[in-house]
Automatic annotation (TrEMBL):
Keywords: ATP-binding, Endoplasmic reticulum, Lipid metabolism, Membrane, Nucleotide-binding, Transmembrane, Transmembrane helix
Gene Ontology MF terms: ATP binding; hydrolase activity; metal ion binding
SUPFAM superfamilies referenced in this protein's UniProt entry, alphabetically: Glutathione synthetase ATP-binding domain-like (SSF56059), SurE-like (SSF64167)
NCBIfam families, per database record: surE
Membrane topology, from the record: Multi-pass membrane protein
CDD domains in UniProt: Seipin_BSCL2_like (cd23995)
Basic and acidic residues compositional bias, start-end: 420-434
A cellular-component GO term for this protein: endoplasmic reticulum membrane
Name of the protein in question: Survival protein SurE-like phosphatase/nucleotidase
BP terms from Gene Ontology: lipid droplet formation; lipid metabolic process
Residue span, ATP-grasp domain: 1027-1075
Region annotation Disordered: where it falls in the sequence: 282-334, 417-442, 598-622, 859-880
Length: 1102
């Protein structure tokens, strides 16, 4: 019994085994105890938090560094513009500058050591910094004030002939192999320690660099560099980058760690504040678990404890998604399908990414008319390219390279939807407008014009923030564009031609379909195939090629078929007219007509069947039958020509289901072997003249001048339809609004016009003032400074807003303020002119703000704006007011110092007068002054404004005969200038000759100022001329002052007495100087009566 009690139960083998296992496992139990695990967790959390804070510290220092430290060496390449003036160029900045930071600014020029450059000697560099990015050439103006400007001299290094020759011989091998070139690099310091005031408006956004020299400079490159002068902390951080990084990152990390530790302690204290009964329960649990762990003999207890732990572990693991399962919602393969293809594309795409401008002639995505463009754009974007899309807002097939003249092009904005679905939306304004949030989605531009116009607007007016366009892709066209018949009419190829004409590589892409069942798989394959082909062509662009026409068969497996370079098949329409007569009463639906063409033409090559309601010839009725016509070409002509052609052309290649690539040039090559002179019959007139004037006075003078100077060489026509052909030589002298400018612009060598299209810089008073002001600011020594009174223009609707309107007219305000303290005899008087009036309407004089306010209070409120046309300042612009001003001329006003005292002639009863000079501007550009001038006198004797009780009597001050009752018929109101008094007190005997010389100098200078400085508002044409009436006033010292220029001047004010001597001779001189030379009948040299005062070559030739 003793054996049984004390045998194996206490000291048997299982007891020994338990003791040994317990001794072995005791150290490991300490390592996996709850305290140890808690320590591991806390350590891991601390290390993770420390690592996270270290990363945040490094990131924070990096952000601070790049915000606090400016770009030390900021460089901008300046692309110089060369023309008739000095070379100049501009460059833009983003946000690279920092306020209150000194910068040293220098200009680096690389100049070829050409004889002309070396002979130039010293030249000047003019550098100006601006706070805005205007669209003009960055000249200072009221809305474009410069931040800083500097002019510094420079000169190329002198080298004696011996030294120069030795240097060239020594470097000859480098020149031969192209490792060196004969140039010199000049670095010219422009500004030192330049600082910008606080505020974004005081930081430069653009610069303008001009090289000023007596002779033309030749420049390889020009570069402006801004080098920041770092001091204090900025210098330390920039000089010792690593040390600064370690110090500041450690400091930030220490502060962050301390803050995180304190936060941890607070959270721990809060979480441990629990009720006492829960604390007691927590304290008892470890004791209970300790006693259970100590009972090693009870194996069933161990099993029961292990099972819940295993189950808990499985439960915890089940709360985390499997590896690769995105958010626990799908297998890892789902994510791989979107990730790995992009990786493979990056690894296999050897072509650089490009900015691609996409357009078409089929309009926005539509299963009916434009089913392919969305797929192509998607494929290009998936290939990593930047894609900008601008399309016609509707279907524009068969329109070629056309633009719509005279129409205002308006955009809308298309947001594409699902691929191959018509769920895209069109909006009036782009994303982010009218408070709408910009979610960054894709957005295309739609314009109501042609494919060629899409290219022009897309290249120059949209997408500039994305960088320059690398290639234009026009298409994919809904149908093939093979053979000459399709290509010459294709809007798709027309858009590519427009791009090539703009100097941008272009590709016309067309899909030749055989079924209208738009299979997304086939379209996707064709789009991917097109992307690869576009990338290949751009990477291997052939010399001399302006554009490619690519035709892809929309067939399964097209990407596996060959791609061939081809010629374009030349073919013609052989089955008769491409139009079919239809019933005039039938409906006309272009979209259905286009769909009918595609259904029956593209697929089968047949001519659409249409009903002609008025096709039979009637035995009665009008001689010409009334019909309507619809575009209905027979595509059978195209396909028959392809079947009959030899292999190798584009039509044959597509027929064989291969991709055709046709290299093209953007021109019409001349037929060889045709040259020499074409001699017409002797009785053919040299030119046709079309004279159409509202004023019979002018009509008679122009007709008489043509008859006297040209005789039978000119034949009169009453309309363009009377010309034998559209290219016949034609001279038009017509009212501005009746001139056929389309004919003029399309025939620059055979059509001559009597007016320029745009010349507001001269004939609008406020434009003329800006023209002169800008020119004087650029040319301080200009003669215009001493012969044109500075003017201040402002806009005003109501008199109560006068104070606001005059805010920027500092000189005017200052003068009116000083007048308050001056005696009447010393007050400065001003003359007020409506900006768009003529015939003396609305002109007033004043010397105080109260008088100016009273003037405006006299006039009624303006209800209609100006028409905006070039001839808007002519007659019938609006209803006349009693004050002598038309309502449409209110709002824009000009104030100039009043010229007092004027020159007065004793023989004319001391009446004030101005000189009317007729000026001829011809071509691009010669300016002539007609020597026969008129003197137009006021109705009453002159009296200084301060000597009058009421300055409202303008008859003493205004010399325009239109203002006078009776006009030019008044006795002595209009006189020949050269018949004026020969002796005038205070002036020399040759005072008239001196005045004429001044007039010639001022006239030549003001036309050059408009032609070179205001090219947007004065655009000369080689096949146009114009007569201007230029008015001058002479002061008591004999100085001439320019008043204004008038287009289509009132010749009738000359009167009958001087009609033949002045106006008749004027038009005869115009025929000799401007008309005959254009048609090869004269040399265009000036005459004794028509003096050449300016000969400016603007680079525009007929």
């Amino acid at each position: 019994m003793a054996d049984s009690e004390f045998g194996e139960s206490e000291y048997g083998p299982s007891s020994v085994r338990a003791v040994i296992m317990d001794a072995v496992l005791t150290p490991f139990r300490a390592l996996v105890s709850k305290s140890a695990l808690r320590l591991y967790l806390n350590t891991l959390l601390f290390m993770g938090a420390a690592a996270l804070l270290t990363g945040i510290s490094a990131l924070a220092y990096g952000v601070f560094y790049f915000k606090f430290i400016p770009t030390v060496g900021l460089q901008r390449e300046v692309h110089l513009q060369f023309g008739n003036g000095n070379p100049w160029g501009t460059a833009n900045f983003d946000s690279e500058f920092i306020s209150l930071q000194p910068y040293d600014v220098s200009v680096t020029l690389e100049l070829p050591r050409t004889p002309s450059n070396l002979d130039t000697g010293n030249f000047m560099l003019d550098l100006t910094l601006f706070s805005s990015r205007p669209a003009s050439s960055l000249l200072p103006g009221p809305n474009n004030a410069p931040i800083s400007q500097a002019r510094r001299p420079a000169i190329m290094t002198y080298a004696s002939p011996l030294v120069d020759t030795a240097r060239r011989v020594a470097r000859m091998p480098l020149y031969v192999v192209g490792w060196h070139r004969e140039s010199e690099t000049l670095e010219v310091p422009m500004m030192e320690q330049l600082e910008f005031a606080k505020g974004v408006q005081n930081l430069p956004q653009s610069l303008r660099l001009e090289i000023q020299s007596d002779s033309k400079m030749q420049v390889y490159t020009a570069q402006v560099e801004f080098r920041a002068r770092l001091t204090g902390l900025r210098w330390i951080m920039w000089r010792w980058k690593i040390t600064s990084f370690v110090v500041f990152s450690t400091l930030f990390w220490s502060v962050s760690t301390l803050s995180a530790g304190l936060t941890w302690l607070v959270m721990t204290w809060v979480l441990e504040t629990v009720p006492k009964d829960e604390v007691k329960k927590i304290e008892e649990d470890p004791i209970k678990e300790e006693s259970e762990d100590g009972d090693t003999s009870d194996e069933s207890t161990e099993v029961k404890k292990e099972e819940p732990e295993d189950q808990e572990q499985e439960r915890l693991l089940s709360t985390y998604p499997a590896e690769g399962d995105a958010g626990g919602s799908g297998p890892s393969a789902k994510r791989g399908r979107t990730f790995f293809p992009s990786i493979l594309h990056i690894l296999t795409n050897f072509y650089p990414t490009m900015h691609i401008l996409v357009t078409n002639d089929d309009g926005p995505p539509s299963n009916q008319s434009s089913p392919y463009v969305h797929s192509l754009v998607h494929s290009l974007q998936s290939a990593g390219h930047t894609v900008s899309v601008i399309l016609p807002h509707q279907q524009r097939s068969w329109i070629g390279k056309a633009h719509i003249v005279g129409a205002s092009v308006k955009p809308t904005y298309f947001r594409p939807g699902t691929l191959h679905q018509e769920d895209g939306t069109t909006h009036r304004l782009p994303r982010g407008s009218d408070g709408e949030p910009d979610d960054g989605g894709d957005e295309w531009v739609l314009i109501d014009s042609t494919p060629a116009s899409c290219v022009q607007i897309g290249l120059y007016h949209y997408f500039k923030e994305r960088g320059p366009v690398d290639v234009i892709v026009s298409g994919p066209n809904y149908g093939r564009n093979t053979t000459a018949l399709f290509a010459l009419s294709s809007g798709t190829i027309g858009a590519a031609l427009e791009g090539a004409c703009c100097g941008t590589r272009s590709i016309a892409l067309s899909y030749a379909f055989s079924s209208r069942n738009h299979d997304p798989v086939i379209i996707a394959e064709a789009s991917g195939h097109s992307v690869k082909l576009i990338e290949h062509l751009c990477a291997n662009w052939a010399d001399g090629v302006h554009l490619y026409s690519v035709n892809v068969p929309l067939e399964p497996g097209v990407s596996e078929n060959k791609v061939l370079y081809t010629d374009m098949l030349q073919n013609t329409w052989k089955s008769g007219s491409c139009f079919q007569a239809v019933d005039p009463t039938s409906a006309d639906d272009p979209d259905l007509q286009e769909q009918l063409l595609r259904d029956q033409g593209e697929v089968s090559g047949t001519k659409p069947d249409q009903t002609v309601g008025a096709g039979e010839k009637s035995t009665r009725g009008p001689r010409i039958q009334h019909k309507h016509f619809k575009w209905a070409p027979s595509f059978q002509d195209v396909y028959r020509s392809v079947e009959e052609s030899e292999p190798g052309n584009d039509g044959w290649t597509v027929k064989e289901q291969m991709t055709s690539v046709t290299p093209l040039k953007a021109n019409f090559m001349p037929a060889p072997g045709i040259s020499g002179e074409i001699k017409l019959s002797a009785n053919q007139p040299s030119l046709y003249s079309l004279v159409d004037c509202d004023n019979s006075y002018v009509q008679e003078m122009v007709d008489r001048a043509l008859t006297r100077r040209l005789g039978s060489a000119s034949k009169r026509v009453s309309s363009l339809s009377e010309l034998p052909d559209s290219s016949a030589p034609l001279f038009q002298y017509r009212e501005y609004e009746r001139l056929d400018f389309d004919h003029i612009m399309s025939r620059p060598s055979t059509s001559l016009s009597s007016a320029y299209i745009i010349r507001k810089a001269l004939i609008r008073k406020h434009y003329l003032s800006n023209t002169v002001a800008n020119w004087i600011s650029k040319h301080p020594d200009s003669i215009l400074r001493h012969h044109f009174k500075p003017a201040f223009d402002f806009e005003l609707d109501y008199a109560e807003f006068l104070d606001d309107a005059l805010l920027e007219a500092y000189e005017l305000n200052e003068s009116l303020a000083k007048n308050e303290e001056r005696p009447d005899s010393e007050k400065e008087w001003w003359i007020l002119k409506p900006g768009m009036s003529d015939r003396g309407q609305g002109i007033r004089i004043f010397n105080s703000e109260d008088q100016l306010r009273e003037i405006f209070e006299e006039w009624e409120e303006d209800s209609d704006d100006e028409s905006g046309s070039e001839n808007a300042d002519d007659d019938n612009a609006g209803a006349s007011l009693d004050t002598g001003i038309v309502t449409s001329q209110l709002r824009h006003f000009l104030a100039q110092p009043y010229i007092d005292p004027p020159l007065l002639l004793p023989s004319s009863s001391n009446r004030k007068f101005h000189i009317r000079t007729y000026v001829l501007a011809s071509g691009s550009l010669k300016v002539y002054v007609f020597k026969e001038m008129l003197a137009l006198f006021a109705a009453k004797a002159y009296c200084a404004p301060h000597e009058e009780d009421d300055v409202a009597d303008l008859a003493r001050h205004l010399t325009n005969t239109c203002f006078q009752e009776g006009g030019s018929s008044n006795k002595e109101s209009v006189r020949r200038f050269w018949d004026l008094d020969h002796h005038v007190p205070g002036l020399s005997a040759d005072w008239k000759e001196k005045i004429f010389e001044q007039i010639c100098s001022v006239t030549g200078e003001v036309f050059e100022a408009a032609a070179r400085g205001m090219m947007v508002h004065f655009q000369t044409l080689p096949n146009a001329f114009e007569l201007f009436g230029v008015d001058f006033l002479v002061d008591a010292n004999g100085e001439v002052w320019l008043l204004e220029l008038n287009a289509y001047p009132d010749f009738a004010q000359t009167g009958e007495d001087l009609k033949e001597a002045v106006v008749g001779r004027l038009f005869e001189e115009v025929v000799d100087v401007a008309v005959k030379p254009f048609f090869g009948l004269g040399d265009g040299a000036g005459t004794d009566d028509m003096k050449l005062v300016a000969n400016i070559d603007l680079g525009r030739h007929s």
